[in-house]
Structures are given as C-alpha cells and as structure tokens.
Design brief:
The complex is a heterodimer of chains A (217) and B (157).
Chain A lengths: L27 H10 L3 H23 L2 H18 L9 H29 L3 H16 L5 H14 L3 H12 L4 H8 L3 H24 L4
Helix pairs in contact in A: 1-2, 2-3, 2-4, 3-4, 4-7, 7-9, 8-9
Chain B lengths: L2 H5 L1 H6 L6 H9 L1 H17 L13 H13 L3 H5 L2 H25 L2 H14 L2 H27 L4
The chains are: A mainly alpha (217), B mainly alpha (157).
Chain lengths: 217, 157
C-alpha cells in the first residue's frame, strides 16, 4: 500500500503509537508466493484453495450475482497467476489479493455502465427519457427491496473513494478486519490506518450528502 | 468531531462498549460529536450490508480458473502485435518491401514514357497553351475572312 508519507498526526490512544513494520518476506505465505513465482502449480492451487471463498464472498457482496461473482473470481485468480511475478512483498499476499478483487469489481461495474450507456444511445431521445423516468420510479419511489437499493447506493458511494481507501473500508466493514489486523496485513501502523479510515468515512458521508442534494430528474 | 472521539471511532464502531470511559464522558457532554458519531454509525451499518456469509464458488473452481488461464495465455493474432520484437520484425519487413517495390518501379517502368506523356498532356493543356491555340486559330480565321473580302472587292467581270 502506498501513501505512507501522508500520515496525519493522530491523538494518542494509550497504545504504542507505531508498530514496527511486518516483514512480509519471511512469512510462510512469502514462501508460498516464491513457489508460485517459480511456476509451481501446486503452490498456486494452494493459493486458490486458501482464498477462493474470501474472494468470492467479497465479489458477491458487491455484485450480488452468483454468475458475475464466479466470472470475476476466475478473473481475479487469473490476474494473480499472471502478475504474481511482480509481487514485491510490501504488503501481505492477502491485502494484495483483496486489492485486486475490489479493483476487478469496480472495473466490471464501470464496463457494465459503459455498455449500458452504449446500449441506451441506440434509443431515440424520447425512449431514453421514458426509460430514465421509469428508473427514477424504481429508485426513488417504493423500491421492491429496500436492502437491495441500499446496497446499490453503498456500492455507488464506495466507487467515489480512491482505490486504497475503498479497499480499506471494505476490509474493515465487510470482511470484519480490526484496525490491528489491517495494520499487520498492510505493514502500516495502526494510527495511519485509523487516519485513512477516518478520511474514507468522511468522504463517504460527503458523497452521500451530495447525492441527497442532487436534484431529482 | 473532537480528537478524543476520532481516536476511538473504529473501536466504537466495532463494539460500542469497547470505546472506553473517556469516550463516553466526552460524548455525554458534546452534542456535535454525538451527531457525527450517529452519522458514522449509520454509515457503518449500511456498508456492512455488503457482507455475505453463504457465498462460495461451486466445486471445481480451480479447474475453471486454470482453463481460463490457459485460454488467456494462448497467443492470438492481435496479442502477437503487442510483442515488441515481433512488431519490429513486421516494421522492417514492410520497409524492405516498400524499398523493393520502389526500386522495381523506377528501373522497369515504361512509366518513364507514360509519365512523360502524361506530363506533356498536362503541359499542353495548361491555360497559356490553350490561349495560344485559341489566339492562333482566331488569326487564321481573320486572315481567311480578309482574303475572301479582298477577292470579292477585286472581282471584276
């Protein structure tokens, strides 16, 4: 993870202010990574077995569709396979995998939106207007499933966060990692993690306020 | 939001009881922090809606991943173009071909003549030449008319 230089002063919490960075080169996981880098297929299989459920559940949490979750999960592991030679042990393997996972989800959502725009551009102006209005009824009227609508909103709001903050919020809130665990995973001290999370939360609130203020069409 | 609350915000969101006595004391006397905290609590609950407990891929996932990797690793015609060495070879071959074609055209082309003919045609149809032709024929016509008039005037029976 980057951005170590942008550390804000954070009040003392009674705990030690900073922990020593974890050396991700000398863990059991690092040995596994080195085996994959040496093109050991058994080691890669171990990575897939170890992380497939976590990767799948994150993707499913964001996309809420089994087929899409399967497709993106495969894509994530294919990406891991091809780019693990560039893994530099600056964070844990898990953090790196999570980052790829969250990025793939948002890439997918971006592409899907572009496809939708292209598809809609084939319609006449009148058709587009009618469609837009019918969307508004579903979104702002009485949604069939409030939870689904709320999830959609969260996904959209998270999209407005920078990549690193988005991953961190998802790891903390969706995957349930504690600040201490995030610190261990990323090799960044706990106070920095808290500062990053706080900034991310503030941005999310602002994004939500902007969305509420935006005039409805 | 005050520092005392910000510092323990994550602990509070994980478990309100774990935030500590100082946190509670500050909160009981600070309406602003209470308001902010409530917003963060609601936000946290919303993001947690993305949690999914039951989701996992169906059996045979590793096999499907490997099939995908093999498919992506197979070089396509387009992926060859991304290979720098291959691209250079294609560029050099194209340049060589263009040189050979140019050499052939210059050395063997009856084109020398063809082209000259064409250029002559172009030159002859230049505006200046067209005017010259036109003015020449006009003079001839004048001359013919004059000779007819002279013949008529000098006609004697």
């Amino acid at each position: 993870m980057s951005g170590l230089t942008s550390v804000l002063p954070f009040p003392a919490t009674g705990k030690p202010r900073a922990k020593t960075r974890v050396d991700h080169r000398s863990t059991e996981e690092a040995a596994l990574v080195r085996r994959v880098q040496a093109r050991d297929d058994l080691a890669f299989r171990e990575i897939v077995d170890r992380y497939q459920a976590k990767v799948f559940s994150i993707i499913f949490g964001i996309l809420r569709n089994h087929n899409d979750a399967e497709d993106i999960s495969q894509q994530v592991f294919a990406k891991i396979y091809f780019s693990i030679k560039n893994f530099d042990f600056r964070s844990s393997l898990l953090t790196w995998i999570y980052k790829i996972t969250v990025n793939e989800c948002y890439d997918y959502l971006r592409k899907k939106r572009v496809r939708k725009l292209v598809y809609e551009s084939d319609f006449s102006e009148e058709d587009s207007r009618r469609m837009e209005n019918s969307d508004a009824v579903v979104d702002r009227g009485r949604p069939m499933d409030t939870t689904l609508a709320q999830r959609d909103l969260v996904v959209k709001l998270l999209e407005r966060l920078p990549e690193e903050e988005r991953t961190m919020i998802i790891l903390k809130e969706v995957e349930g990692f504690s600040v201490e665990e995030l610190s261990r995973l990323s090799g960044v001290n706990e106070n920095t993690i808290k500062v990053k999370l706080f900034r991310a939360r503030q941005k999310l609130l602002k994004a939500a306020q902007r969305l509420n203020r935006a005039p409805s069409k | 939001m005050h520092k005392a609350i910000r510092a323990r915000l994550e602990e509070y969101l994980d478990d309100p009881a774990a935030a500590g006595r100082k946190f509670e004391e500050h909160l009981s006397g600070c309406g602003d922090c209470r308001g902010d905290l409530e917003q963060f609590r609601k936000q946290s609950a919303q993001v947690r809606l993305l949690r999914s407990d039951e989701a996992s891929p169906v059996a045979g996932f590793y096999g499907r991943v490997m099939a995908r990797i093999e498919a992506e690793a197979r070089p396509s015609a387009w992926s060859l173009m991304h290979d720098a060495a291959f691209g250079w070879r294609i560029a050099l071959a194209s340049a060589g071909m263009a040189l050979i074609m140019a050499g052939y055209m210059v050395s063997t082309d009856p084109a020398g003549r063809g082209m000259a003919t064409a250029s002559d045609m172009v030159m002859s149809s230049a505006p200046k030449n067209i005017l010259a032709i036109d003015s020449g024929s006009a003079a001839q016509m004048d001359q013919a008319r004059n000779s007819v008039l002279v013949t008529l005037a000098s006609f004697q029976e």
